[in-house]
């Protein structure tokens, strides 16, 4: 969920929603953990086997929540840097559908322009970030996520190097 260009109130609402969601998931994972522990200590082989399976669920869930929150924070950090540097894609003049999404032809044209920038400098996190956003506007969420992960990794190398 992106909060770019939102007012402080909108940002607080999003953060509060995510905090509540994480708290509810934490409670759910705690309950699953208690059920798993009860099954593991039941002494019954079938109960213990099911307990192991039930124990895996909250562990996987915690990993997913942590990975998702970390990715969101990384993406927001990059978005903030792009805004500070004035390099965010300007889509304000592009035609939009009634839903607010950019019209497909305009998104494809924007993507082609940004792809040329990326081909000229593929190891620049800023250009990779712009390409990820262009993929998103064009509706290709899978490539947008892959490219955003690349942008995050490149930016991390720049910060650490």
Describe the fold and architecture:
The chain has 161 residues and is mainly alpha-helical. 77% of the residues lie in helices and 0% in strands. It is built from 5 helices and no strands. It has helices at 8-40, 45-85, 104-120, 125-137, 141-160. The longest helix is centred in the middle third of the chain and has 41 residues, at 45-85. The chain starts with 7 loop residues before the first helix and ends with a helix.
- Mean pLDDT equals 89
Structural class: mainly alpha
Succession of helices and strands: HHHHH
What form results from the Cα inertia axes?
Answer: elongated
Radius of gyration equals 21 Å
Biggest sheet, in brief? none
Low-confidence residue ranges = 1-5
Helix content: over 70%
Number of helices, where a helix is a run of at least 4 consecutive DSSP H or I residues: 5
Strand content: under 5%
Terminal CA distance: 30 Å
Strand runs, count: 0
Task: Name a few traits of the molecule.
single chain, 161 residues, mainly alpha, 5 helices
Brief overview, please?
The chain has 161 residues and is mostly helical.
Helices, strands, pairings?
Blueprint: H1 8-40, H2 45-85, H3 104-120, H4 125-137, H5 141-160
Helix pairs in contact: 1-2, 2-5, 3-4, 4-5
């Amino acid at each position: 969920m992106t909060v770019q260009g939102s007012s402080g109130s909108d940002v607080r609402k999003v953060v509060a929603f995510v905090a509540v969601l994480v708290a509810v998931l934490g409670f759910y994972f705690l309950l699953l953990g208690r059920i798993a522990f009860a099954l593991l200590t039941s002494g019954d082989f079938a109960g213990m086997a099911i307990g192991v399976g039930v124990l895996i669920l909250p562990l996987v869930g915690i990993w997913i929540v942590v990975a998702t929150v970390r990715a969101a924070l990384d993406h927001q950090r990059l978005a903030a840097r792009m805004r500070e540097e004035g390099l965010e894609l300007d889509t304000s003049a592009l035609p939009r559908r009634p839903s607010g999404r950019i019209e497909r032809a305009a998104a494809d044209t924007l993507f082609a322009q940004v792809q040329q920038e990326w081909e000229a400098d593929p190891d620049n996190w800023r250009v990779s970030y712009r390409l990820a956003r262009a993929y998103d506007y064009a509706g290709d969420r899978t490539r947008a996520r892959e490219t955003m992960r690349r942008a995050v990794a490149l930016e991390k190398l720049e910060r650490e190097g």
